[in-house]
Amino acid sequence: xxxxxxxxxxxxxxxxxxxxxxxESEELLPMLAAAxxxxxxxxxxxxxxxxxxLDRAAHKAERRGDQAKAREYRTALAEFExxxxxxxxxxxx
Length: 93
Known about the structure:
mainly alpha
């Protein structure tokens, strides 16, 4: 099911920027993006998967020439890193 980008933005207005970015870039309903993110974070190295999704979204936006969207995805990635960046260190200990 494809959703209109404006509808995705409206539905994700109350979620974190990284969940909103995942929903938009992967064309998921915000609830599914939130559930997928939560489930993925519970997996070993799941934070790396989420980093890859957000980084890939930024690269795709750059290739399309959409610098504003690429910045939005990079900002979401930075927020994710701030919140979950320590996951890698905890898993390694």
